[in-house]
């Protein structure tokens, strides 16, 4: 029964869109889709637990490949107008939860080669930008410089590497889990058919379809202190 307020922006000049929302626990989540580079960037600014020695907030960036038809094009997004801004909208389609193993770190200073938006979006998360090996392979084939990527330690490298929620020692490395949900976004264009006087049928854009989608990211942290939300409740 909770209502999430979102802001959507589109820049058809640089062919990208961004969507921002605040979650129930106060985290600020941003999704940036860079269509030109086929990259999407999730950033989460998570409120820190000051009484447990954390800083005011913690920033995370997850960078993944943007597939075609995941989200409507930037020029279509730029044309969207909201007649009633206070209307509560519900997504027409709930897309399945995606569980992603983020096993590679991205070097912030070199990240602009992957997408120019990394520099702005991930500025607070310089030491916490993650991606997946399978996405890296795709970008390397497109000619991106491989030196910006560093494979993170895996369970196979460190046999006693546990999930953070099972790890008792706050200073030990572990596999952290962070979940977020994009509650409403325009995922597809709708097309309608019309017939002219001669009986010829043509189709035209006549609206959007909205979706909701959840993501869970697993990634290595050098100490559990960086993952205090991922605990058994």
TrEMBL record:
Coiled coil, from the record: none
InterPro entries: Oaf, Oaf_C, OAF_N
The organism's place on the tree of life at top rank: Eukaryota
Chain ranges of the Out at first protein BRICHOS-like domain: 1-139
Domain Out at first C-terminal: residue ranges: 163-231
Family: Belongs to the OAF family.
Designated name of the protein: Out at first protein homolog
């Amino acid at each position: 029964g909770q209502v999430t307020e979102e802001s959507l922006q589109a820049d058809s000049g640089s062919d990208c869109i961004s969507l921002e929302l605040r979650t129930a626990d106060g985290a600020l989540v941003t999704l940036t889709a860079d269509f030109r580079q086929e990259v999407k960037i999730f950033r989460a600014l998570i409120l820190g637990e000051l009484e447990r020695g954390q800083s005011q907030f913690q920033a995370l960036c997850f960078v993944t490949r943007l597939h075609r038809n995941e989200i409507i094009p930037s020029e279509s997004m730029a044309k969207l107008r909201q007649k009633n801004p206070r209307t509560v909208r519900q997504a027409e389609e709930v897309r399945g939860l995606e569980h992603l193993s983020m096993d590679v770190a991205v070097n912030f200073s070199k990240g602009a080669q992957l997408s120019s938006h990394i520099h702005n979006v991930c500025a607070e998360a310089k030491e916490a930008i993650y991606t997946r090996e399978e996405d890296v392979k795709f970008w390397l084939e497109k000619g991106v410089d491989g030196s910006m990527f560093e494979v993170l330690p895996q369970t196979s490298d460190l046999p006693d590497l546990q999930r953070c929620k099972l790890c008792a020692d706050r200073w030990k490395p572990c596999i952290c889990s962070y979940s977020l949900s994009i509650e409403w976004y325009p995922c597809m264009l709708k097309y309608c058919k019309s017939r002219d006087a001669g009986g010829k049928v043509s189709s035209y854009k006549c609206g959007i379809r909205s979706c909701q989608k959840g993501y869970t990211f697993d990634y290595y942290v050098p100490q559990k202190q960086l993952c205090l939300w991922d605990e058994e409740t």
